[in-house]
Amino acid sequence: MCAKKSPEELKSIFQKYAAKEGDPNQLSKEELKQLIQAEFPSLLKGSNTLDHLFAELDKNGDGEVSFEEFQVLVNKIAK
Ligand SMILES: [Ca+2]
Ligand SMILES: [Ca+2]
């Protein structure tokens, strides 16, 4: 048994949090924070802060995380 979630579950989690403010298809830093804290708190351990995580995910540096960028996190969780 592991914490792996199905692609459908991850997509619905992404959409649920991305829709909270601004662009419903993009996660702002605040939305990412809420998502991580509620669904994957184990990702924020030690030096792995939200700032680090957000910077890692936001590949194009536009200040929001798209579903495509979110896949990086999905791959981390799936490990
Ligand atoms: Ca949003
Ligand atoms: Ca981005």
UniProtKB/TrEMBL annotation:
A family per Pfam: S_100
Top-level taxonomic group: Eukaryota
A cellular-component GO term for this protein: cytoplasm
Residues in EF-hand domain copies: 45-79
UniProt-listed PROSITE patterns: EF_HAND_1, EF_HAND_2, S100_CABP
CDD domains, alphabetized: S-100
Gene Ontology MF, one: transition metal ion binding
UniProt cross-references to SMART domains, sorted A to Z: EFh, S_100
Keywords linked to the UniProt accession: Acetylation, Calcium, Metal-binding, Phosphoprotein, Repeat, Vitamin D
Matches recorded under Gene3D superfamilies: EF-hand
Name recorded for this polypeptide: Protein S100
Organism: Nannospalax galili
